[in-house]
Design goal:
Largest sheet: 2 strands, antiparallel
Oligomer: single chain
Number of helices: 37
Structural class: mainly alpha
Helix content: 55-70%
Strand order of the largest sheet: 1-2
Number of strands: 4
Strand content: under 5%
Distance between the termini: 89 Å
Number of domains: 3
């Protein structure tokens, strides 16, 4: 059988095809490519102005691994935890090239979202150019139109306007580059193209493993081109198949063991997934390319009913379509079947054959068909070309066809422009989702979270109540409702909601965490500890639970048990700076200052800006009651630990360096005043500076016993003992009023020195 192009017309052998492609490249102009890029950027202008939405915190804004210079090796780490008997990663999913791109961009523009959006848009534009280039090489009719439709189709807004979906646009670019490289190699253009294709394929897998289907796509293209040298072709593709299969199996494993895609929502058998979910999902995606309305961030999740015969109609229709394309090869060529098979193969990882976490909310999502959509776009383009071919022979018909194609692209671009604006903020995205899909309980739940974060607790309760109407979300809704009540100080009401959550789902570890926080707030420490132990029974690898247990035991001065819990938290999350700070505080409470310094230094390395007292220096450390140990100034903790350990010069130097960045940090100023007034090293004491700083702090906080204590010591250092005694007595009473008995006793001892006309000299612990 002679080889045919996608429109079904005969074409020559490989050498003639090469010449034809060379002539096609010569006819193509820079202007066409530039127009493609400009149109893509113009359609996505609203996306560039958008902020952060769902999951962007896990991937970027709250992911300290991409924000610290030491985090890059951690995003690539993949290791076997022998104790837990499972593979471990430090990121939500093992896509290290995605996090590397975030890490590089964070060095350039920090957390300003516009930069990340621009990169997503440009990657999408590059992919469109590659689609055009590959289309010309494969002699696809209307290759530029196919590329433009891919660039402008609104179904791809979810992949481009959502920063978290950098996975799609980055892996898509590598996938298409690899495909082009392999096509050049198999066109006998040199072995270097095979090596380049292999590297690019691995890069695509390290960005998102849905690209593992590339080797099958290459085999389909070879089948379309002709069967000469098929055995050699298969042998060259087999290493790619093995690499792709290994990456795919790793992702399936991590989706279950790390992401959590197991349980009732994923209980369907393989036959159900193959016959009832995958075919319907396939036709859903085909329909959205043909008619992209409505587009919803979370689509309704249909029920899988194995006993309903109508449910098998989707599979029957798919078999009929494939059979029709197969039977029509002689008349239509292999192109339609190739496009159909390409769509099916490329979509396969997201059709529902394997459990992935987003299936908890819906079986389908726009971003699942980023690359698979090309099969449908090509199929519809081929159909349009065949239908309009008689008219295209006439000049008027040709002009009318081009005008119609332009109208289609303008409409697609307009829809993309409009859809991009929905991603302006998380609130707008979830509100749009809930309007289009009232059953999207995750939208109601997240709107409740947003309202609670802004202090609009009554509004949050309305959203939580709405989410609780759905049985699958009821436990989670009650748990979130309880957390909102806890923030309001309505502790008894919070306990009731946590118990309701557990009555629906006794395996909800988060509700035990909430109960622990509520009990601790009421001082019911034994009950709080039991709740934390229940949480850890259900989720023994939750580092925050171990950290909270360590905090609870530390407040009870159960030092060995507390230390064991905190070390477990650090082992589970070695890059979590909060756990290091909490452990450092525990060591400091035991006067183990040198060890505390080591932990604060480790936390400092994990949090950018911490060493200089910059924006990253403040950590919101979860407290033992779950409500947060307020905001902990890491530089101030480090300075105190250094001073107490006897490293006085280093403590002063560290304090001054931090104050250069944060000159009004009261905690650092208080530490500096204390050191200048009490340091045992004569060269480091400066009573006048200590008095100036402490007096200014006392004006702002006249009842702070530690500020008054530093002020009294500053007076004593200057020989002003009468003032030292007067201020010291105020400090003692303030400490007693605050219930700080140990501090009050220490101040009383210093008062004895002042009354005897002696300054206080701090002795390192």
């Amino acid at each position: 059988m002679p080889a045919r192009n996608l429109s079904g017309t005969d074409r020559g052998d490989y050498g003639q095809t090469d010449a034809a492609m060379a002539r096609a490249r010569a006819r193509g102009g820079v202007g066409s490519g530039l127009l493609l890029v400009v149109a893509t950027v113009a359609a996505y202008v609203p996306a560039i102005r958008c902020g952060y939405v769902w999951d962007d915190d896990q991937y970027l804004t709250d992911n300290h691994l991409v924000q610290t210079g030491r985090g890059l090796p951690a995003v690539w780490a993949l290791w076997w935890d022998a104790e837990a008997g499972r593979l471990r990663i430090n990121t939500p999913q093992y896509y290290p090239l995605v996090y590397t791109s975030y890490w590089l961009e964070h060095r350039l523009w920090g957390l300003r979202p516009a930069g990340y959006h621009v990169v997503n848009v440009l990657l999408h534009a590059v992919s469109a150019l590659l689609v055009w280039r590959i289309g010309r090489r494969l002699a696809i009719p209307g290759a530029w139109f196919v590329a433009a439709a891919f660039a402008l189709h609104p179904v791809h807004v979810e992949s481009v306007a959502w920063i978290t979906e950098r996975k799609n646009v980055l892996s898509g670019t590598f996938y298409l580059l690899a495909l082009l490289a392999f096509l050049r190699y198999f066109a006998l253009e040199g072995k270097r193209w095979y090596a380049a294709g292999l590297v690019l394929f691995v890069a695509a897998l390290l960005s998102k493993t849905v690209t593992c289907t590339l080797p099958i796509a290459l085999l389909l293209i070879r089948w379309y081109q002709g069967r000469r040298g098929a055995a050699r072709y298969v042998a060259l593709v087999m290493p790619l198949v093995l690499i792709g299969a290994a990456a795919g199996l790793l992702t399936v494993y991590l989706e279950r063991a790390h992401v959590g895609a197991e349980g009732g929502e994923w209980a369907q058998g393989f036959l159900e997934r193959t016959l009832l979910i995958a075919p319907r999902a396939f036709w859903f995606y085909a329909g959205k390319i043909a008619w992209p309305h409505p587009l919803i961030f979370i689509y309704p999740r249909w029920q899988v009913e194995a006993g309903a015969w109508a449910a098998y109609a989707w599979a029957a229709a798919l078999v009929a379509a494939a059979g029709g394309a197969l039977v029509g090869i002689r008349r239509l060529g292999r192109g339609p079947l190739l496009a159909l098979l390409y769509a099916g193969v490329t979509l396969a990882p997201a059709l529902g054959f394997f459990p992935v976490y987003p299936q908890r909310f819906s079986w389908v999502a726009d971003h699942f068909q980023y690359l698979g959509s090309l099969g449908f776009i090509i199929l519809y383009t081929l159909a349009a070309v065949r239908v309009t071919r008689p008219l295209a022979r006439l000049r008027a018909g040709l002009l009318a066809g081009r005008a119609l194609a332009l109208v289609v692209l303008v409409v697609l671009g307009g829809l993309t422009f409009r859809r991009s604006a929905v991603y302006q903020s998380a609130e707008r995205l979830w509100e749009d989702t809930l309007r289009a899909n009232p059953g999207a309980w995750i939208a109601a739940l997240n709107l409740g979270h947003l309202a609670a974060e802004r202090g609009r607790y009554d509004r949050a309760a309305e959203y939580y109540e709405r989410a609780a109407e759905h049985p699958v979300a009821r436990s989670e809704a009650y748990n979130s409702w309880g957390n909102a009540l806890l923030r309001m100080g309505r502790v008894e009401g919070a306990i009731e909601k946590f118990r309701q959550s557990l009555s629906v789902n006794p395996q909800n570890a988060k509700s035990y965490a909430g109960l622990a926080a509520a009990y601790a707030r009421l001082g019911r420490l034994d009950e709080a500890e039991r709740a934390l132990e229940q949480e850890l029974r259900l989720d023994p690898e939750r580092p925050l639970a171990w950290m909270n247990l360590g905090l609870l035991r530390g407040r009870q001065q159960r030092w060995p048990e507390a230390e064991q819990s905190l070390l477990r938290a650090i082992r589970l999350a070695p890059h979590l700076p909060e756990a290091r700070v909490v452990y450092g505080n525990l060591l400091a409470a035991q006067k183990r200052w040198g060890a505390a310094v080591a932990q604060y230094r480790a936390a400092q390395r994990e949090r950018p800006g911490a060493s200089a007292g910059g924006a990253g220096s403040e950590l919101s450390v979860p407290g033992w009651d779950g409500q947060g140990d307020r905001v902990t100034s890491l530089p101030a903790l480090l300075v105190t630990a250094l001073f107490e350990s006897g490293a006085c010069e280093e403590a002063v130097r560290e304090c001054n360096a931090a104050l250069a960045r944060r000159p009004n940090d009261a905690r650092l100023l208080r530490a500096l005043a204390w050191m200048r007034a009490t340091c045992a090293v004569d060269a480091l004491r400066d009573g006048r500076e200590a008095l100036r700083i402490a007096a200014r702090l006392a004006e702002a906080a006249p009842d702070d016993p530690r500020v008054l204590d530093a002020l009294a010591c500053a007076h004593a250092e200057l020989g002003q003992f009468e003032q030292a005694v007067a201020v010291g007595e105020r400090a003692r009473e303030a400490a007693r009023a605050a219930g700080e008995t140990e501090l009050a006793q220490a101040i009383e001892a210093r008062l004895e020195l002042f009354r005897a006309g002696k300054p206080y000299r701090h002795a390192p612990s």
